[in-house]
Specification:
Elements: E1 2-7, E2 12-17, H1 28-46, E3 59-62, H2 77-87, H3 101-117, H4 124-157
Parallel strand pairs: 2-3
Antiparallel strand pairs: 1-2
C-alpha cells in the first residue's frame, strides 16, 4: 500500500510507501502513479478545475521515512503507512508501537472501523446492518463452533 499526494505547492507527486524504490522512475509504483495522475487530471478538467492538467507534468519523488525498507514483504506495511499519515504532525511517526503484533491488530481494527463508519462510505448502512445481524447471531455461531471443536477432540482421541 502506498499513498500518493499530488502536491501543487511543489509540483510533485509524492510517493509515501513502506518500501524504498532505488530506481523510482522505472518502478511499478511510479507507473501506477502516472496512470492515477492522468485519470485525476482528466477528472479535474472535466469538472472545471483550471489547474487539473498540471498534474501530468508533476515529477515523482519518494518521501523518505525512518521505517522504510527495501524489502517488498514487510508485514502489515500498509498499516504503518496509514498510521504515519494519520499521526503526522510534521515529525516522523514513531512506529515503535507497531512492533508488537497486538498493537498492530488494534490499529487495524481502529482503521477498519473508521473507514466503515466514514460519512463518504456509500455502503456504510449495509455493513453496519450486517454487523448488527452478526452480533445477534454470534452466540449461536459460537455454540456451533465450540461443539465442532469438542467433536473433533473426541474423534482425535479415538
Amino acid at each position: 500500500m502506498c499513498v500518493l499526494r499530488f502536491n501543487y505547492k511543489s509540483g510533485t507527486v509524492d510517493l509515501l510507501d513502506h518500501q524504498l524504490h532505488p530506481d523510482l522512475n522505472n518502478s511499478k509504483i511510479c507507473k501506477f502513479a502516472t496512470v492515477i495522475g492522468s485519470a485525476l487530471s482528466d477528472y479535474l478538467e472535466a469538472n472545471g478545475v483550471c489547474r487539473g492538467s498540471e498534474i501530468i507534468l508533476f515529477e515523482h519523488r519518494q518521501i523518505k521515512f525512518p521505517w522504510q525498507s527495501s524489502s517488498p514483504n514487510l508485514p502489515e506495511s500498509g498499516l504503518i503507512t496509514m498510521m504515519h499519515m494519520m499521526m503526522y504532525d510534521g515529525n516522523p511517526f514513531d512506529h515503535e508501537d507497531l512492533r508488537r503484533k497486538i498493537n498492530r491488530r488494534y490499529f487495524v481494527v481502529q482503521l477498519t472501523a473508521a473507514l466503515i463508519l466514514a460519512d463518504i462510505n456509500t455502503i456504510r448502512d449495509e455493513v453496519v446492518g450486517k454487523v448488527n445481524q452478526f452480533l445477534v447471531e454470534k452466540d449461536d455461531i459460537w455454540t456451533r463452533v465450540h461443539a465442532k471443536r469438542k467433536i473433533k477432540k473426541i474423534l482425535e482421541k479415538k
